[in-house]
Specification:
about 300 residues, alpha/beta, FAD/NAD(P)-binding domain, 2 domains, seven-stranded mixed beta sheet, about 25% helix, about 30% strand, elongated, binds NADP nicotinamide-adenine-dinucleotide phosphate
């Protein structure tokens, strides 16, 4: 029987592990497929307080893991496949074993929604990105394209104009979903050109050279064309990783776990932190903050069980 199992190993998960370990709960972290979460895929982190020179995403996650382990957190490189939250202790099945736990902290994060088109996976990290904040810097004086018509696409596009000489925003309709203020900021920006009613059907590139262009299709005329770009940013929303919890925890209309201000979910003893319950901020530091709060509340829950 575990005291507390933390599902997910991003900044929320390892911060929860650090706090639970220091509370002498000997927490178990089940990493999921991506040890370190989305941050570990990020090249350079310049906005995590305490690192004035910045550091690599992988490096930051290694440090967080080491810090949690130093106080007794255990890390299992495994994937949770099934949970039962309707009984207590909670029950979990992973790829290799089953567990019971008095408390659970869910920090499974979210994943950028992808287009699933040819070339996207092949050139991911070599010209295809889902994070302008992380990778925009590499496109100084280059030409880039962003796909999407929401606030994220506007934000990414505007951010990229700091570096790139030209930014195309490609949207599948002729009307943006983004808020008025973000739309007008993007439209006023001279470096941004909109391509309307258009979908991206293929990412074009060459082995060793990365992305060189996009194949486009106008959805109204059916006309196909190619666009030369050096970078391609996908900003069509995020999908919270909550499939495991459907029907067991309250989720909002977009699938995010609903938590209160103390990171409690709809099931007592189950807490959540980080992007899996945050459609708004999605920052490493806010994820770490909610992970910390979730662990403090989990400790309180376990102590009350023992009283
Ligand atoms: P979003 O609002 O859901 O917008 C996603 C965009 O991607 C939509 O324009 C959608 O097109 C397009 N899209 C979705 N699937 C696509 C596909 N397969 N191919 C091509 N295009 C596709 O997502 P978001 O922009 O990430 O924003 C999420 C939430 O965070 C929103 O509530 C937003 O307001 C908020 N947010 C706010 C800010 C800010 O205020 N600064 C910044 C970022 C995010 P359609 O329009 O045709 O559906």
């Amino acid at each position: 029987m575990e005291n507390v199992i933390i599902i997910g190993s991003g900044p929320a998960g390892f911060t929860a592990a650090l706090y639970a370990a220091r509370a002498e709960l000997s927490p178990l972290v089940i990493t999921g497929n991506t040890l370190g979460g989305q941050l570990s895929l990020t090249s350079e982190i310049e906005n995590f307080p305490g690192f004035p020179q910045g550091l690599g995403g992988q490096e930051l996650m290694d440090l967080m893991r080491q810090q949690a382990e130093r106080f007794g957190a255990r890390v299992e490189y495994d994937l949770v496949e099934e949970v039962n939250l309707s009984r207590h202790p909670f029950w979990l099945k992973t790829q290799s074993t089953t567990y019971e736990a008095k408390a659970l902290i869910i920090t499974t994060g979210s994943s950028p929604r992808l287009l699933n088109i040819p070339g996207e996976a092949e050139f991911f990290g070599r010209g295809v990105s889902t994070c302008a904040t992380c990778d925009g810097f590499f496109y100084k004086d280059r030409v880039v394209a962003v796909v999407g018509g929401g606030d994220s696409a506007m934000e990414e596009g505007i951010f990229l104009t700091r570096f790139a000489q030209k930014v195309y925003i490609i949207h599948r309709r002729d009307k943006l979903r983004a808020s008025q203020i973000m739309q007008s900021r993007a439209m006023k920006n001279e470096k941004i050109t909109f391509i309307w009613d258009t979908i991206v059907t293929e990412v074009l590139g060459e082995e060793g050279k990365g992305v060189q262009g996009l194949r486009l299709k106008n959805v109204k005329s059916g006309e196909e064309s190619t666009l030369a770009v050096d970078g391609f940013f996908i900003a069509i929303g995020h999908v919270p990783n909550t499939k495991l919890f459907e029907g067991q925890l309250e989720l909002d209309e977009h699938g995010y776990i609903v938590t209160d201000r103390r990171q409690h979910t709809s099931v007592p003893g189950v807490f959540a932190g980080g992007d899996v319950q945050d459609p708004i901020f999605r920052q490493a530091i806010t994820a770490a903050g909610t992970g910390c709060a979730a662990a403090m509340e989990a400790e309180k829950f376990i102590r009350e069980l023992e009283d």
